[in-house]
Amino acid sequence: MDGVIVDSERYFPVLEREWFSSLIGKYNHSVRVSPGQTWKWTEKDEANITGRSASDIYLVLKEQYGLKIAQNLFLKQYDEIAKDVYENKCELTRNFLNVADNLREKNLKIALVSSSPYSWIEMMLKRFGIRDKFDVVISADELNGKGKPSPAIYLHSAKILNLNPENCIVIEDSKNGIASAKNANMFCIGFRNGINENQDLSKADKVIYDLSEILSMDIF
């Protein structure tokens, strides 16, 4: 969903940067910053969490950054940020509708597979009215929040679609997402969407810069 179907990754880093910096405070990996200075969330930090579920992000922040806030409060605040992004800020990625309609005409099964919770996915689907573009919609909620880079969510998706993993093609915009797809033994297209230059897409089988490039590929 994020970064492929909608351009939400354009907004999450901006909102997360200030929020995570305030939550983590003056400590980063137990290293204290100079007196009078406040530690700041960086692009490297952002790349580390992109593609992960909200629950996994909480665990990363707790284990690697010493986050102190309770998980239920963290997730509640995250929901408020997501609501603003999906209901007010983000837009559909250029050429998504054309590509989705074209692939459906080829009788291909299409799944929306996201580390985001169902509540976030539903916000996006309702706003843009695109639920009918997908045969199935799958969230990390089905796996108790276990999202990417684990291959579990893609293996689960293949099972629901009644497909062998090697017959599935994944479109991903993050390092964690690509790792998830490849660990599931799926062909993976890395998508350079203009806002993910901090992501390492080198493990993808192919990299594209516009979703419409998919239509000229001979893998479908």
Structure overview:
The chain contains eight helices and seven strands. With 220 residues, it is of the alpha/beta class. It folds into two domains: 82 residues, no CATH class; 121 residues, 3-Layer(aba) Sandwich (Rossmann fold). The strands form three sheets. The chain has a three-stranded parallel sheet, covered by helices on one side. Strands 1-2 form a two-stranded antiparallel ribbon. It has a two-stranded parallel sheet with strand order 3-4. A hairpin with a 2-residue loop joins strand 1 and strand 2. The chain starts with 11 loop residues before the first helix and ends in a 12-residue tail after the last strand.
Quick summary of this structure?
By secondary structure, the chain is an alpha/beta fold. The protein is 41% helix and 11% strand.
